[in-house]
Amino acid sequence: MSKNQEAPEGSARRIEIVTATPADTPGAAATLAAAFATDAHVVGMLPRGDVARPLTLLWERILLETFHAGGHAYLAVSPGESRPLGVALWEAPGSKVSIPQMLPGVVAYLRIFRSRFPDAFTTELLAQRAHPRTPHWYLKAVGTLPEAQGTGVGTRLVQERLAVVDRQRAGTYLEASTTDLIPYYERFGFVSRGPVPCRGTVPATGMWRPPVG
User: Fold this and answer.
1) H or E stretch covering 47
2) What range(s) does the N-acetyltransferase domain occupy (predicted)?
3) I need a labelling partner for 131 at 20 to 30 A (CA). Which of 94, 152, 174, 209 fits?
4) Rounded mean pLDDT of 104-114?
């Protein structure tokens, strides 16, 4: 479920990008749940009905697994806001959350996906197999609150980390959860690798950004 949700950049607002810790998980999960609430790829794997609670539980689990594996999360915060305006979730080379590392959370995933668990599991397995084989940074998710989309929050989150990746001369991979997002990520130098195989939902598009230099 490594998908991205962000609208094209509009007028910028005063924000700060800060490094998240596991203690920030509830707020970060709430922001990602709101960002992905209308995402056809992610929502397409959930049972019919209300998606707010299962999405929040899903992102809490994904965040905790990412932290445990050595990954990183960054928050876009603004004065006066009670929760992050945006969240970016990254896996560094060598810190990928593997299927075996997800097994301790299988009970939580069963509660989230219920009858759709086989589809969600298969989709995650196929997504992991579609990753480039060369070591790379993985932009696992980036999302902003609906009211902050189009204000440049997502762009700040992506750009600030890509600057670090470029200094390391490393490649970067992500999945665009809708075809509308492909031009957005192309602005950062990502190139489409085509649809990522999935089961029971709308395919995402794998995108690769080669090392700079």
Assistant:
1) none
2) 15-212
3) 152
4) 96
